[in-house]
Amino acid sequence: MGRIVAFLCFALSLSSCFKEPDFALIPVIDFDSINSQIRLDQFAGLTKDSVVVSVHFEDGDGDLGYNEAQKEQAQLSDDFNYLIKPFRKKNGVFTEFEPLIPLSGYFPSLKIDEKPGPIEGMLSYTMEFYHAFSPKFDTLKFEIQLKDSSGNLSNVTESEEIVLNRISAL
């Protein structure tokens, strides 16, 4: 019994040594990675590139993401919280383009308890590009920005470039 009490006292003393991070209330993001996989769409029977972009985030009050009610409201006005600007490389120069379907979207609340407090982590977001609607060897990059549920916009981070539609069939 004495060992358990001693262990608990030791554990509590260690936990008091860790200071809660002091992040800004406005989210801060940094590009981490981008990758793609060629897949077959089972419904349409078409090949596509499934692109995953990952960013590291920090937020002081932890209000990143929408709960279900916030998402329903945001969908009425396309008030996305994961903002993507795509750029296509042509003749060595990247130019922003407007995709047929918006790439921006929604991500759920990142705090399970929804209590205010700092959070940090990695957020991965998937986009799909059908080969039938993309040029061969299409080189893209993306600007990414997050919006918290208070409406604060993070800084903008830029992905590395990625080449899509490298094959015409599986």
From TrEMBL:
PROSITE patterns in UniProt: PROKAR_LIPOPROTEIN
Protein name in the entry: Uncharacterized protein
Organism of derivation: Arcticibacterium luteifluviistationis
Lineage: Bacteria, Pseudomonadati, Bacteroidota, Cytophagia, Cytophagales
